[in-house]
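Entry 14. Ran structure prediction on the chain below.
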Amino acid sequence: MFKRTVIEDLGKWAGKKNRKPLVIRGARQVGKTTVVNQFAEQFEQYIYLNLELPAERKPFENFKDLDTLVQSVFFLKGKELSKRKTTLLFIDEIQEVPEAFNILRFFKEEMPELAVIAAGSLLETIFNNKLSFPVGRVEFLIIRPVSFMEFLQAIGESSAMEEMRYIPLKSFAHGKLLTLFHTYALIGGMPEIVKAYAETKDLTSLSSIYDSLISSYIDDVEKYASSNSQTQIIRHVIKASYSEAGKRIKFQRFGKSEYGSKEVGEALRTLEKAFLLSLIYPTTSPKLPIIPELQKSPRLHLLDTGLMNYAAGLQKEIIGTTDLNSVYQGTVIEHLSGQELLADNHTALGALSFWVREKTTSEAEVDYVVAHENNLIPIEVKSGKTGKLKSLHLFMDQSPGNIAVRLYAGELSVTKVRTPVGKKYDLLNLPYYLISQLPHYIDWVQKDSI
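Output, structure tokens:
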């Protein structure tokens, strides 16, 4: 079953006393409908509406009052309109009826006992200026690609999943988990790809699905862009993003084009709203809160590393490597590390960040920083000896904390480190495949340090 953590969050939402209608957001084909169908098993009644179908959108197009709408929907689907039964109403492809977004607020005010979830294709909603959300009267939940743990579940590696939960990890599990993570790094976390691989274990059969996914995103732009020039710019940005992913970018002439900064910026922000990519801005402080420096160059992060690998032609290089850090100058594993850090974060505020020190005399950059309790934890994705972690040392010299993280292909360990100026700290050397367990391992290091 995909998206275990999403199902858990949906359960928490359903159990709230002051529950609001829930809008599920995420890129196309990331598994929104599948997750809700799975969650619906917890209810006595389930009503699924697809507003792409004329008969099912008619009650919303002819809306007069909520009672009439609900009665017509229950009648249409042959369900019992009764408070004695728990019912989940799922309104899919809600963007097909713009007025339906505003109707959501009436469910909270007039029929709070009915659990209502809505979802739709984000690109349509962005380009349709008629749409507006009932701010304050709905909740949001973000669905992202399949995580490594969910990948293990999908391919039937239940024993590997169980070993991942032991803290600290037993050393005998390292080799197999690293091999499985290489496979996950290769194909990525798009549900349709993972499902196909789980059924066939045939990597060569996945090409047509990658092509279909990428083409569908480009086709969405052509269908919903407001002008031909906007279509061309966004098409270019989508295609160029696969080779620019994981790097700090400039908007001006992005992807070796003649497009200006304003045009590219608008295109990137549009695609960011559609969850196809994100712009990660750096912070310059080693302390909380994380404040992004929006005047500095952002790093480009895509929806899914597997799509990036396929589009950029990196798959063969990944198959032949023993350490993902050696592929594409480390870009693949850095990108996937960010994807894993976000995988189980389903809030609208979930975002990645990295740290920079930009001085004329010397520059430093730490791949990621994450908040943990009252500290900002630096994360470097790097193989080799700890003596090469120059940027990490510079961060720790300024940080009030005493824990840093290095993600690498080696086994789990904790090293006592001293910076060149003498500060001591604990370096958690964490295998790539344990990224999702990072908060637990930080707690483990802190406990042992007491």
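The mean pLDDT is 92. Will compare against last week's run tomorrow.
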